Amino acid sequence: MSDTSVIKGRGAQHNSHNRFLELSYEMRDDFLEFCHKEGEIADKNKTQYLNVFPKTIVNKVTSPDVGMAYSMNMYQGCEHGCIYCYARNSHEFWGYSAGLDFERRISVKKDAPKLLEALLKKKSWKAQTIVMSGNTDCYQPAEKQFQLTRKCLEVFLKYKHPVGIITKNSLILRDLDLLKDLAKDNLIGVNISITSLSEDTRRILEPRTATIKKRLETVQVLSENGIPVNVMLAPIIPSINSHEILPMAKKVSELGALSIAHAIVRLNGAIGELFTDWIRKTMPDRADKVLHQIQDCHGGTLNESRYGKRMRGEGHIAKQINDTIKLARLKYFEDKSMPRLNKELHEQYKNGQLKLF
Length: 357
Hints:
Helix content: 25-40%
Number of helices: 12
Shape: globular
Number of strands: 10
Order of helices and strands: HEEEEHEHEHHEHEHHEHEHHH
Structural class: alpha/beta
CATH architecture: Alpha-Beta Barrel
Keywords: Iron, Iron-sulfur, Lyase, Metal-binding
Strand order of the largest sheet: 2-3-6-7-8-9-10
Pfam family, one: Radical_SAM
Protein name: DNA repair photolyase
CATH class: Alpha Beta
InterPro entries: Elp3/MiaA/NifB-like_rSAM, MJ0683-like, rSAM, rSAM_sf
CATH superfamily: Aldolase class I
Largest sheet: 7 strands, mixed
GO molecular function: iron-sulfur cluster binding; lyase activity; metal ion binding
């Protein structure tokens, strides 16, 4: 039975301390008691959108085991609230907490489309696939209001430049028209994250994401429209979704996905504390088991930073997970693969239109 004090609609249950700040913030019991007596709400649990103005929008990825060369993020922080999200730690760079702040204080880069266009027009720029959502989801709830992802897709289409998308939100189907136009020239690849077939698991693990039903429908609709889809079974968390690998792989293959990818959960930085607090409140009956099995995958610790090990883990439990993924690929994806995106067209469209000579 879960703790009745759980903050509904959020993953993190508190604001962890920002390691870069000397001061810390806490909500004391005497303040909470005062609010209770006065009939006031101590924490309204509302999301704030904050405008920021970076000078660049595309980042070069130097990590050797990530699988992308360049990424861009229109939003910092993510209202989806996935408790395991590795991007939480990056919110500390901006002076916020990796906990509730990450879900409730969303930085919005309204100049993203202009910054992207300026980059793609540079004579020195050579086409490389740029992945939207290398850090935070480009189709999180903020996108409904600001539509920065759609505007950036229009830029990619105008300049015939390859783009990848990572998301767990069915809002991507709003932009089906642009995705179909990009797919005609093999300029788009979509990665849909699906971590469970259980709506109950999804609801507590990823509280403000699209439902499992909606995500499966998204895989099917994109595939039926000729848009290549890779499904990310990530992260795999022992004793939470590790038993679902084969059923998930089978289902998404039937819906048209061309491949699957996975990663074993790792809880770096503040995420270890946040995840431990969360699981003791939401799954107290199996909290110790899950935490110990995660540690077993990472040499006895929740924190794992070693390249080549951090995504796949090591030990008996990690081997079982990785072997199951291999089996899933053999059973359901043996004759399928994601296409290489087209990098040849962009040079002809540097000025936004086809060069005749």
